[in-house]
Write a structure and sequence with these properties.
Elements: E1 2-10, E2 13-19, E3 24-29, H1 37-45, E4 61-69, H2 74-82, E5 90-98, E6 103-107, E7 110-111, H3 114-121, E8 125-128, H4 139-149, H5 153-181, H6 183-200, H7 206-218, H8 220-236, H9 242-256, H10 264-290, H11 295-315, H12 322-337, H13 339-384, E9 392-404, E10 407-416, E11 424-425, H14 432-445, E12 454-458, H15 466-480, E13 484-488, H16 492-495, E14 500-508, E15 513-519, H17 522-534, H18 540-551
Parallel strand pairs: 3-13, 3-14, 8-12, 12-13
Antiparallel strand pairs: 1-2, 1-4, 4-5, 5-6, 6-7, 9-10, 10-11, 14-15
Helix pairs in contact: 5-13, 6-12, 7-11, 8-10, 9-10, 12-13, 13-14, 14-15, 17-18
């Protein structure tokens, strides 16, 4: 719901700030006062194209900003979350257009492309009147309205799931058949690659072990020479060895322990060192005996490393990705070698998915047919009270050549506004006033399943008066009981039925012109409706008539047209 609007240097508005309320708010004012200024501003704010002509004379830029309450609009909150935008209940939208025509738009302070703003705006406000972006002119919006009226959302969600499932099998079959075109050439390559990888039989983690073993074999001679030299120095040299020197020193030290017991600690350390030297010598001797100088084993190991590196380079993978590569190629080879079996299985699964889709689509079509007939009857009946006696409304369902995620048919609204005229698509209705009133009837009937919380009707009462004007007003008021409605009107019968009223004034000082908009209290509202009734000269009689119109709002039944 729209809760706040601020305009700065827009057209002939220098500065305007308004808070909005739920229910039906009417905008009135003298002809030429600029009653549609708010409609135009909201259209620009939410994605309409704009240029420098909207910038007030003498200003550098136009700025339009609004705050929307998204508390009852989960679709808009989800839209924000999907794009990592601020998803608070209150959302601030801002549009700036400078004197050079450059435009910038923001959601919650984050810059956004105009197309994104337009997409978001379609979740917030629907503008009805002679406007090119009116949603009911779009066939997809007409289908959505019919489905909302029939309460088809759960069925649509299930159908979309079956459609995705069916499409996935179609995609896999197409890929299988495309691969079969070059099957033989691909088979030869796959067989060679699989055989090559199978022959290699690389095991995950094997490379680290191979590299350690290769380094040991490559330096076996050096390692063996070191062991011999170390053993000679530590133990085997009869002339001078570490073991011999330690033993001699220990014997001499032990002889002196009787002279000075304080040498005991040194004796114990030398004893431990002697043991460590003996153990180290034994370990080196054992290690040296295990060293293998077999050149054939080294050659075999080097060849395996070369084979692994060659296939890693060939397939451009990491070494430990080779087992997964083999599994993938083997799976593809199996599919191609048994493509006929796989294709038959996929066809069975695809046909099963299509049957599930068709079953749901048939249910949806039946519900749409019933809802289309009921909606057509109710809108046709409403048209009789909205200045189109003899008018007729129809909902056409046309079968698609190929199923879609939303079902097997398109939906289009057709209308004849006058007796004897043929039905035409709603998008081709010539009269903007008739189009607005038909849209009004549709919105009132469909209000219980409404998706868009704020509706704006710009001059929906064009070309009507009297009882028809009152009926339009009552339908708008009934709609305002469920959604926020903003209505630009020149008819007192409609204005009197609003929950709230704003007056638009054009003011001039001889040098410049500006538009001001203000909320009216009860007394000023009577005066404004009296002006609308009586023109320039407002008499006590017209004031009494205005008071009668406002006080008679509650009768007859306010819900007239909202449930029939």
């Amino acid at each position: 719901m729209l809760i706040h609007l601020q305009l700065r240097d827009f057209a002939i508005v220098d500065y305007l700030e308004l808070d909005f309320a739920p229910g039906m708010s009417v905008l009135t004012g003298e002809t030429g006062a600029g009653k549609s200024i708010i409609v135009d501003a909201l259209g620009l704010l939410l994605g309409d194209r704009g240029d420098s002509t909207v910038v007030r004379h003498g200003a550098e830029r136009t700025e339009i900003s609004a705050v929307f309450d998204l508390g009852g609009l989960p679709a808009a909150l989800d839209w924000l979350k999907e794009r990592d935008l601020d998803s608070d209940v209150q959302c601030h939208v801002r549009r700036v257009i400078n004197r050079g025509g450059r435009s910038r738009a923001y959601i919650g302070g984050t810059p956004q492309p105009l197309q994104q703003i337009k997409e978001f705006g379609e979740l917030l406000i629907d503008i009805h009147g002679q406007h090119e972006h009116q949603s009911l002119l779009r066939r997809d919006a007409q289908r959505q309205l019919l489905d909302d009226h029939a309460d088809n959302q759960k069925l649509l969600d299930a159908l979309a799931g079956h459609y995705r499932h069916w499409n996935e099998f179609n995609r896999r079959l197409a890929a299988l058949r495309e691969a079969a075109v070059q099957r033989e050439a691909r088979l030869d390559l796959l067989r060679f690659q699989v055989q090559e990888l199978q022959a290699l039989n690389y095991q995950s983690g094997e490379m680290a072990t191979l590299e350690v073993e290769h380094k040991r074999l490559a330096h076996a001679g050096r390692l063996q020479a070191f062991c011999q030299q170390a053993l000679q120095r530590l133990y085997d040299d009869d002339t001078v060895s570490v073991q011999g020197l330690l033993s001699q020193t220990l014997q001499e030290l032990d002889a002196l322990l009787t002279v000075d017991p304080r040498l005991t600690a040194s004796s114990e350390l030398l004893n431990a060192a002697l043991i460590q030297v003996q153990e180290a010598s034994d370990e080196l001797r054992h290690y040296g005996q295990t060293l293998d100088l077999d050149p054939d084993q080294l050659t075999t190991l080097e060849q395996r490393l070369a084979d692994i590196h060659r296939l890693v380079r060939k397939h451009r993978v990491e070494t430990d990705e080779l087992p997964a590569l083999l599994a993938g190629l083997a799976e593809e080879l199996d599919r191609l070698e048994n493509s006929e079996v796989h294709e038959a299985q996929l066809e069975r699964e695809r046909d099963q998915a299509r049957r599930a889709y068709d079953q749901q689509a048939d249910r949806l079509s039946e519900r749409r047919e019933a809802a289309a007939q009921e909606l057509a009857e109710r809108v046709s009946a409403a048209m009789q009270t909205l200045g189109m006696p003899g008018g007729c409304f129809s909902v056409t369902l046309e079968r698609l050549e190929r199923p879609a995620a939303f079902g097997c048919e398109t939906v289009e609204f057709w209308v004849s506004a006058n007796p004897g005229q043929p039905l035409k698509p709603l998008s081709r209705v010539a009269s903007g006033g008739e189009l607005s009133r038909i849209s009004l009837a549709l919105q009132v009937i469909a209000a219980r399943n409404a998706r868009i919380p704020t509706l704006i009707f710009d001059e929906v009462d064009s070309g009507i008066g009297g009882a028809v004007a009152e009926m339009v007003g009552r339908q708008l008021r009934a709609l305002g009981e469920q959604r926020q409605v903003l209505c630009v009107t020149h008819l007192p019968q409609v204005a009197a039925l609003g929950h709230h009223q704003l007056k638009v004034d054009k003011q001039t000082d001889g040098h410049s012109t500006r538009t001001a908009i203000e909320w009216l209290d009860d007394a000023r509202r009577i005066e404004e409706i009296a002006r609308m009734l009586g023109g320039v000269q407002v008499t006590e009689q017209t004031r009494a008539h205005a008071r009668e119109l406002v006080e008679g709002v509650a009768t007859p039944d306010e819900s007239d047209g909202s449930s029939e």
